[in-house]
Amino acid sequence: MPQSTLPVVIVGAGTAGISAAAELAETGIHSIVIDEAPRIGGAVFRGPFREAIELPHLDNKLRKKISNIRQLYQDNQPHIQLMLETRVLGPSGDNALLVRHKDDVFEVPYEQLIIATGCHERSIPFDGWQLPGIMLLGGVQLQLKSGLVKPGQKIAIVGTGPLLPLVACQLHKAGVHVVGVYEAGKFSGFAKESRAFLNRPLLTLEGMGLLSYLKAHAIPIHYGWGIVSAKGQDSLNNITVAQYNEDWYPIQDTETDIEVDSLAVGYGFVSRNQLAQLMDIEHDICSFSGLKPQVNEWQMSNQANIYIAGDSVGILGGEGAMMEGRIAALAIAQEIKILSSTAVKKKASKYFNLLNKVKLFRAGFDRVGRRREGLLSLLKPDTLVCRCENVTRADIDKVINQGVKDITSLKMRTRVGMGDCQGKTCNSYCQDRLRQELDTLDVGYVKPRFPLDPIPFSALSEGV
Amino acid sequence: MPTLSEKKYDIVIAGGGVIGAACAYFLSKEKNLNIALVDLKKPGNASRASAGGLWAIGESVGLGCGVIFFKRISMQRAEAEGDDLPPLRPHILPDCFFEFALKSNNMYPALWQELKDKHDVDFKFEKTGLKYIMYDKYDKLYADSIVEQIPDLADQISWLSAEELAKDEPYINADAIGALEFKCDHQVNPYRLNEAYLEAARQNGVELFLQTEVTDIEKQGNRITGVNTSSGTLHCDMLINAAGSWAAELSKMACGVEIPVYPVKGQIILSEKLPKVLKGCISTTDCYIAQKDNGEVLIGSTTEEKGFDTTNTLPELKELANGAMRCLPILNDMNIKRCWSGLRPGTPDELPILGEMEGVEGYLNACGHFRTGILTSAITGKLINDLYRGLPLDLDITPFKHARFDEQNKKQA
């Protein structure tokens, strides 16, 4: 059983976690970094799980970023204790986490904790969304980047945000026929945000590069369009897309059928902050990324020794995560008196600068891609919302008509969110739906339960 | 529709857990009263956390979570007095509680039918029995002394030999030497029961103020006149305190007196969904085990006085898990899906607090149901309705009135 007296524990070896560990290491502070995956880098920069001679679909920039984060870890490795393939189950007492590595369940004590647990994809249920061949966009990208498999032969991409054109290019380079990208945001909306995008001119240029690649290879982008439904016998054969109106309701006479064998759905991400919630950290309700843990400008939560950085505290992407991780690390360095407040301020100022630019840049996409209520209209009465517990839209309609006003009552009456996934899939729809019905942001939330992932009974056997 | 400030309710029920919901249902059956129910879901709500056992005899003789409660008390005493652990003796509740629990238990088959037929809600009543599993002669002694003390209930008891137990419950540890079964002890789905009462009450015209917090109580002299909530003021002639573990806070607001109700934490483990591995509900001296209607196996429960803390703690979970694995070895190969904690509304004598409060008009207690709120919700709802309407009561509630604490205090003085 790994035991350590290291003072700082970081949950998540993604961009935020590794950046925090590196910044700590640079000031001579040791840390333990815990991650569920077998490699560092997080979902975005984990890279292939197996070696391959050629990775034509991974562009040079991505390869460079993957190797950068590995290098960052290598350079600081003497100060970092990695615990890979280790899942955090929840808090244990006041200053420890309970974790599981293979069949061992044990405590990892901490003095200071950085939660950098990233995000997960927002699942948007629509008629047919469960057919084999339909995947969330990030999942498709992971299949390419880490699994080195093609999701299908002929694919359409629906959703909103900067990931759509990027994955379209990667799919095309991997030899998949991309029939089109259906971006729910209007082109005029993106045009209006050009000032926001200029906060990160290089990223914007990269984005333009992607768009011209798509143009050169005759892959169309349809702005203001989105998914309506999907059909197929045993797996996906056919999707219907349509132009969306202002509120993202499909405009009926624009509905178009397309034959595909796979579909990538990317209507955004949700902060993955179940651990923060389980640790009783104060949260704000945020219509964009679900619940948002409250942190101050140094990423410190309402509990003075717990910091939260990266997408788990609000979706900003890799660069923002890097800065937030480093800022949290500096705050800890000052807290344990390794660095003076002057030194910390000096080091942090460039991070704050970049972070602010990233926030302004990202806000542009958030405004154009803000979810509109039309997305809630894509379900038929028998469309499943919660697949752990087989709860349909009609089941939810029924209890809302009975006067249910909060997510807990919805859960008690229908069992949504009571399955193994603890509501990661259905919660977004249920929250949005209640908000729409009740015209209020506060509909309560499903408190995550310990353990965050199922554990074998045998892991709790006496003597373990 | 009148605005809130003009409307006046006959009754406002504070608390939408199983007790408040049962009161709302029974009071609304005749549909001739204006009733509002106010509820805010707080972490630790006991009805949601419950196992859903209708263990009328089991709980009265201290099985179910009672046995674990008693074990802990015995250990604490032994530790405090420095003695060796005294032999575990059954912790039997007074006769008035037996009557209360058994009368309530008898109501469920008809209530289940009634709610299904009239209101299309199903709280999953299952006839299971409750088996106390014995591993050794000490467990047998414990069972013997239970049986000795309840001669009137002999017809509800049966002894199972090791062979009979193995035949009836093939997944139970083959080392068990037999079981004592309480034939009338069954189970429901606890949150479905809670929601069934609420939905039936709503269909009967009760106005539900969900997601709504009680902030203060309005009074004129010693009479309750209204309830201030986060959704506005609800004027009323009668307030029913069904606030579970939060009942003391409410009685303080309403009556100026904190009734002795305090949270008693219970941790619970839930397995993933399994095929049917148990016919009946199970109690050992380590834990109780019940397989619920959807296949999940529920294991309870600790008894801890930790205020409103609802965290899960590893040593306690290990104790429960090991007790369950010993009894039901197949769990060794299964997963724990969830753990949680509930806050039972405990009282010093383990009896509920029902009825009026000395010197306060327009107020009734329906609280302090400790570990048996699901089981005794039906009789509580009926008693509160009969009390409100001045009807003859099914049983004497003197032992459950708040005044008993004053008398105890006087005696002690």
Comma- or semicolon-separated keywords:
heterodimer; A: 464 residues; alpha/beta; FAD/NAD(P)-binding domain; Arc Repressor Mutant, subunit A; 3 domains; 5-stranded parallel β-sheet; B: 413 residues; 8-stranded mixed β-sheet; 18 strands; 24% strand; globular
Structural features, described:
The complex is a heterodimer of chains A (464) and B (413). With 464 residues, chain A is of the alpha/beta class. In chain A, strand 13 and strand 14 form a beta hairpin. The longest helix of chain A has 28 residues, at 341-368. Chain A is built from 14 helices and 23 strands. The mean pLDDT of chain A is 92. Chain A has a five-stranded parallel beta sheet, with helices on one face. In chain A, strands 9-16-10-11-12 form a five-stranded parallel beta sheet. With 413 residues, chain B is an alpha/beta fold. In chain B, 35% of the residues lie in helices and 24% in strands. Chain B has twelve helices and 18 strands.
List the helices and strands and how they pair.
The complex is a heterodimer of chains A (464) and B (413).
Chain A: E1 8-11, H1 15-26, E2 31-34, H2 42-45, H3 60-76, E3 80-83, E4 86-91, E5 96-101, E6 104-109, E7 112-115, E8 119-121, E9 134-136, H4 137-147, E10 154-159, H5 163-173, E11 177-183, H6 187-192, H7 194-197, H8 201-216, E12 221-223, E13 225-231, E14 238-243, E15 256-259, E16 262-266, E17 269-271, H9 274-278, E18 283-286, E19 290-293, E20 306-308, H10 318-335, H11 341-368, E21 384-386, E22 391-392, H12 393-401, H13 407-414, H14 427-438, E23 455-456
Parallel strand pairs in A: 1-2, 1-7, 2-3, 7-20, 9-16, 10-11, 10-16, 11-12
Antiparallel strand pairs in A: 4-5, 5-6, 8-17, 13-14, 14-15, 18-19, 21-22
Helix pairs in contact in A: 1-3, 1-10, 4-5, 5-8, 10-11
Chain B: E1 8-14, H1 18-28, E2 35-38, H2 46-49, E3 53-54, H3 56-60, H4 65-81, H5 95-119, E4 130-134, H6 137-149, E5 157-161, H7 162-168, E6 178-182, E7 186-187, H8 190-203, E8 207-209, E9 214-220, E10 223-229, E11 232-241, H9 247-255, E12 262-273, E13 281-283, E14 288-291, E15 296-300, H10 314-327, E16 335-346, E17 353-355, E18 363-367, H11 373-389, H12 403-412
Parallel strand pairs in B: 1-2, 1-11, 2-8, 4-13, 11-18
Antiparallel strand pairs in B: 3-7, 4-6, 5-6, 9-10, 10-11, 12-15, 12-16, 13-14, 14-15, 17-18
